[in-house]
Model the fold of this input.
Amino acid sequence: VKPQIFTGIQSLKEALAPYRLIGKTIGFVPTMGALHAGHARLLEVARESSDVVVTSIFVNPIQFDRKEDYERYGRCLEDDLRTCEDAGVDLVFAPDISEMYPDGASTFVEVHGLSDHFCGSSRPGHFRGVTTVVSKLFHIVGPDLAYFGEKDAQQLAIIQRMVRDLDFPIRIVPVSTVREPDGLALSSRNIRLSVDERKLAPKLYGALSAVAAALSGGERSAKAALSVGRRILDIPGISTDYFDLADPDTMQPVATIRDPVRVMGAIWIGGTRLIDNLLVPFLGGADATRTVGQ
Ligand code: PAF
Done:
């Protein structure tokens, strides 16, 4: 069955109201389109765990820190609608910019602290743009559950904090990263890679995995563990933006490992920026406290 498509906020709200009235759970997958198998996985999890599945397709201009990235961002509504149909999406919300940001829009939502490092420092204003649009979408859709990919781990942590701090009555469901067979995390930006660049791209996953293996294998020095990964990325064609350990909830760089950590990486390959991360469970006992010296 083809999903119903809405471009207006009011008409979407009117279409959703009867479902809410009869107690159906509404699951929401916000996207910027250019849907790939990672999004399909989000939609699949939503389909399994919600009665009504809503997805939004909106390339949010205020979360792009570079004009060129915004302009190059994939837009293929026909393909995206087919993906939605295949995934059993019930309603698609595809507003234009003026519907989301009427003239004079001047209110922003900002999550402090969690946005300070990693992508937050590399892409000024990015997370403010994300939290602002996601707040708006949450108010428009009013979901019971909302699904976010772990590939954007910092975004996920920030949304979880925002939902807690602002009392959104929504459960955030994290969904595992989908990878190519060689480990490359699926991303709408992967199609920008040339054939040669594509060959380099799995190095990011390789570097993250090497750090995860070192930590799991009992490496006590996180500095040493990170250096194993950094060496893998230190090759012509790759420029590292950041490569560090983060607390998964606070998104602060980790000094002493006492809990699970996320190994976080962002690299440039030519004009394309790729990010990825791995969660490493904390295996150590009292004697396994490791110190990070960066
Ligand atoms: O992850 C994304 O695709 C975007 O950041 C989101 C959550 C749809 C907000 O524009």
Q: What stands out?
A: Residues 30-32, 60, 63, 130, 133-134, 152, 155 surround pantoate (CB under 6 Å).
